[in-house]
Specification:
There is one protein chain. This protein has about 425 residues and is mainly α. The chain is about 75% helix and about 0% strand. Helix 6 runs antiparallel to helix 7 (about 135-150) and helix 9 (about 170-195) packs antiparallel against helix 10 (about 200-220). The chain is globular, with a radius of gyration of 21 Å.
């Protein structure tokens, strides 16, 4: 694993806390001052493209199986709820590994963690394509989620450490754009390839592409300039910090909102694929996969949510996001495919509005040790996807689409209430 390099100094970085000042032995390398990557520089463009590749590869690997759930159900003769484990196990283990990876990267460096996470996950996706046994495929997908934990929180930390704060938003936008584009193309591409070839070839091709992207990422990403290593894994410190955040009522509300958001979004998309593949629609795999192009509406809505929040306030935007999602859920009750698609668009738009605002509130609410607070938000965020995404299979099996609507509306209502209780900002 390549190590990050930083200039040596006896001085203490301005980014360190007062507690760290008292313990200089914990940092083996401390930069004299922050040497930011400036907008317009060669390193800035290299970093932006590298992180776009990272976001694309990691999120396409996570969500590529979502349009394949009906195919899994047919190939392995399993129920819809069981087939959803191919995604739920990935996001479930991802949730926990994100928390650990964000702390572990403090000791071993950022770039190497992200590279090996993406490369190993790509290989596991290729391995999954050859699995003839359902449980073997689940093991490969679970391990994929476990290793991908080294990407989301670590990427955010690298950006915050290395990019000039005045231009951080644009660089972060390239990474987030990569994640959104990867999640969309991963879903659409899988559906198209599985229709013309097979889901096995689709998984294999995506794995090869993402493996190539992982080497491109490592080659392009500049070495760290401001990273300060913290040798060892100080478990007591991390546990105390996480416990402190979990006693913060404001953060708990934000974590619960994140849980509600993915519970709605993933559950609705999971079982929409089954609904559209059944009568009266009987859509092909290709047609179903094209539904995921509505993700583009989310990319646009998330980009404008920040400016709207600055103008109208974060709490109204959070609430509006859930209100739009609730309206979209109701639209999907109609039998008209136009109404169903309109409903999915509204759910996607509302999700990205509320998620972008909610995630942006975590740091200011935490005030200190913001990386730990962000990792806990991602923990609850992906647990909603994992737990309710699978539980939704029971509702689908016993109550059909009406049951899915009732389940997701309950979370939309809860999210709306929590948004109104959030401190006005």
């Amino acid at each position: 694993m390549a190590s990050d390099s930083s200039p040596k100094s006896v001085q203490v970085s301005s980014t360190q806390t007062w507690t760290e000042h008292k313990k200089p032995a914990l940092s083996t390398r401390t930069p004299l001052k922050n040497v930011w990557i400036q907008q317009g520089s060669q390193d800035y463009y290299r970093a932006g493209f590298a992180l776009f590749l990272l976001g694309f590869a990691s999120f396409s690997l996570i969500y590529c199986v979502q349009p394949l759930l009906p195919a899994f159900s047919h190939s392995f003769n399993i129920s819809p709820a069981t087939s959803s484990l191919a995604l739920s196990l990935t996001t479930g283990l991802l949730a926990f590994s994100i928390v650990l990876a964000s702390a572990f990267s403090q000791a071993v460096g950022r770039r190497g963690i992200m590279f090996f996470s993406m490369a190993i996950a790509s290989v596991l996706n290729i391995i999954a394509s050859f699995m003839q046994d359902w449980h073997a495929l689940l093991i490969a997908r679970a391990l994929e989620g476990l290793v991908l934990g080294g990407v989301p929180a670590v990427a955010m930390a690298w950006l915050a450490e290395e990019i000039d704060p005045a231009h951080l938003g644009k660089a972060m936008g390239l990474y987030v754009g990569g994640t959104a584009f990867g999640a969309m193309i991963g879903r659409v591409g899988m559906g198209l390839m599985s229709e013309f070839y097979s889901w096995r070839i689709a998984l294999e091709v995506l794995g090869v592409i993402c493996l190539a992207f992982s080497f491109g990422f490592y080659k392009l990403l500049p070495e760290s300039r401001n990273f300060v290593a913290q040798p060892g894994f100080r478990i007591a410190f991390h546990l105390r910090t996480w416990a402190k955040h979990l006693r913060n009522v404001g953060l708990i509300r934000l974590y619960a909102i994140g849980f509600c958001l993915t519970s709605i979004f993933v559950t609705l998309f999971n079982y929409a694929t089954f609904r559209l593949s059944d009568a009266p629609y009987s859509f092909s795999q290709t047609t179903i996969s094209l539904i995921f192009l509505v993700y583009a509406f989310g990319v646009v809505s998330s980009s404008i949510a920040g400016s709207l929040a600055d103008r109208f306030g974060k709490r109204p935007l959070m609430f509006s996001g859930f209100a739009i999602m609730g309206l979209g859920i109701v639209f999907t009750l109609a039998s008209s495919i136009i109404s169903v698609i309109a409903g999915v668009i509204l759910v996607t738009t509302g999700f990205f509005i509320s998620h972008s605002v909610t995630s942006g509130c975590v740091g200011p609410t935490a005030r200190e040790n913001k990386g730990h607070a962000a990792s806990l938000y991602l923990l609850f965020y992906y647990m909603g996807s994992s737990i309710i995404g699978s539980v939704g299979g029971w509702f689908w099996l016993h109550g059909g689409w009406i049951a899915i609507v009732a389940l997701t509306l309950c979370f939309a209502t809860l999210g709306s209430i929590l948004s109104l209780l959030q401190i006005k900002r």
